[in-house]
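Section 3.1: Structural characterization of target chains.
Under the original work plan, the team committed to producing a structural model for every single-chain target entering the pipeline before any wet-lab resources were allocated. The record below documents one such target. The sequence was received from the expression subgroup and is listed exactly as submitted; it comprises 415 residues.
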Amino acid sequence: MARLSGSGLFDDHVVYERPGSWTFAGGLLGEVVLDADRVHTRWPDRPPVTRPWTEGRPADALREAFAGVPLPAWNAYGWIAFEFAAPSPRGRLAHLIVPRVEVRAEDGRARITGVDAHETEQVAKLLLAEAESGAPAAGTPAPVDVRVGDAAYRAQVADAVAEIKAGRYQKVIVSRRLDISYPVDIVSTFVQGRRANTPARSFLLDMGGFQATGFSPEVLVSVDAAGRVMTQPLAGTRAFGLGAGADAEGREDLETDPKEIYEHAVSVRTSQDELYRVCDPATVQVTGFMTVKERGSVQHLGSTVSGVLAPGRTSWDALDALFPGVTASGIPKPEAIDAITRLDEHRGLYSGAVLTVSHDGALDSALVLRALYNRDGRAWLRAGAGIVDASTPEREYEETCEKLTSIAPHVVPLP
């Protein structure tokens, strides 16, 4: 996947990893770009179309755009910004491509599909050369110092706690941005970071000049072709990878801390309520409640909430119901999103989603956390913490440091 991304064969491409499966999507066969006031579509053998949209929800605009795909079968890959859920959104909200070439790797075998024989032959040659030469070199990381900006972030947390105690909402995720002072090698960072992480999903993308790579700790929403829906909210965090004794102590603290247990329980309950809106209520269930999930430099409390779509509902409805992730926004969501627009700066892809959606109704999306972002030669990291009335600025700042450590030590400069 790294060699395909760094090969220069495709300007726009997405790598998406699910358990046991890797997909590379390269080149533009079709495209949907959703801005705050317009939707742009481009399909083969048709002129590009730009039209305004001001009514309905962003998920409806995407649903309508993909309803017009002039292909019998297709898969699309891309990203959705956090502002997709904002009451008055601005900027780019989503960007998805239907690729010219797809490479799907499972069980040590790769299957290539595409519309251009010459392109697929080039990809096949590159994959054969990769198989002969072994793992790619990934450059030397230049670790990023995560312990900066503490005063400003602690003040944000204190403001959020005050608003919670005033009864404005129950929980909100407040984040901080960490700018990187040097140009980054996004592909090498992906390789180095993936070796050190155990994500639920991973991704690497370069679309329209915007690059990002990340190691998502949780599935935002996954819907199969039969309409089975699954989400995996994580909430509650302690450091991991400090040694067997320290990790076990952190796990015990995580499982017995009333603040962490409360934070996780209300997140699971919110996810359950959201699935009731789009699923047959009798099918909604919680499994693996409060199981500890190890994700790189941190461990979380995690649960799985699932259900079956009600008649007339689609994967777009499930995405709309669950986006943004409760563990990256807050409770109740409308009030938390309003607070984020006041307490945080524009988020973009952070706490949004990278996703794939298919012609048969299947959809899979990863919550974008533990990620590196790069545009116009400027790179940055971002991390947040869930704030409830029992939060302290000192502990929440420490939690952001723990989360940033999932990627900060693995950032590789451009040579």
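The chain has one domain: 1-414.
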